Amino acid sequence: MYNGAVAPAHLPRRRRRAPGPSRSRRRAWPGAPLSRLVALASVAALLAACGNGRSALPPATTHATAPTAPTTASPAPTSPAPTATPSAAVPCGTATAPPARYRHVVWIWMENHQWSSVIGNAGAPYLTGLAHRCGTDTAWSSVGSPSLPNYLGATAGSTLGVTDDADPGAHSFAADNLFRQVRAAGGTERSFVESMPSPCDLVSSGTYAAKHNPAVYFDGPGDRAACRADDLQLGALDAALASGSLPTFTSITPNICDDMHSCPVAAGDRWLATWVPRILDSPAYRSGTTFVVVVFDEPTPLANVVVAPAIHPGTVAASPVDHYSLLHATEDALGLPLLGRAATARNLRDVLGF
User: Residues of the chain whose pLDDT is less than 50?
Assistant: First the structure.
């Protein structure tokens, strides 16, 4: 058994100030009669007296057809009122500051696309629109290759020496992991996995890929029993959302078509457009204490969108982060100790302001 760990290096966050409104230009009216000029001067004097000469217009907010990649985070200058309730229609910018602790964290795993091949792609209108309305980082790196090391790294703080995609029959680990951490702290964790034949299925079949379901690889104290109880088919997610019983930590894995692994980008985008709004309209998200991450496993720089009430709509960062940064943010948000390389990774919460 390999259990990796390593050394710290937090880097400071830099943010670009949002640009102010541009000044409009007025052209003189040539040949205007004296009476008109006098009337205009009187109106101008009256406005100055009432308003102290200051414009009440807010800064203009514009959006490009797809987020670009500036060198630092670039939040939009305006956002909805801080008292607004987040929802699928307005998921971000409804809170002026993030909570110190979150009650729920949701990860949605997608596959095998770089940032530029998804965000702005005509086949991904939903995910591109969500990036405009929330936040994304254009410099998010994988932590291994192929898929499995990235899922292990995100949940254990180490790739555990894995360099292939073999099923749990070839790889199982007693290493500490995020699922066990959440349970030990008194929280709940669930994985919802599309097309998995039975709970905690250890064997890939059809469009189900065990390599995309990290919970099945851990067999330390309590892990396997918890997997059988908590690693469920995707349909169970609907019940959790409807009943207001979203777990403390949720990992969602589409099948290998809907995660864009073996089907076009458009197929995965349609899947996201079906499921993400359900999450964002759930009582858990509307409470303001949930954040959601749509993240691809590889390749670097990988596609991602982060959704949280405190993120300024249209935030685009270019700070180097990786799957260990995601683990750091999740453990920090839930008040858990940092595992392995999460302890040395940049906190994604600091980068995107949630």
Answer: 1-82
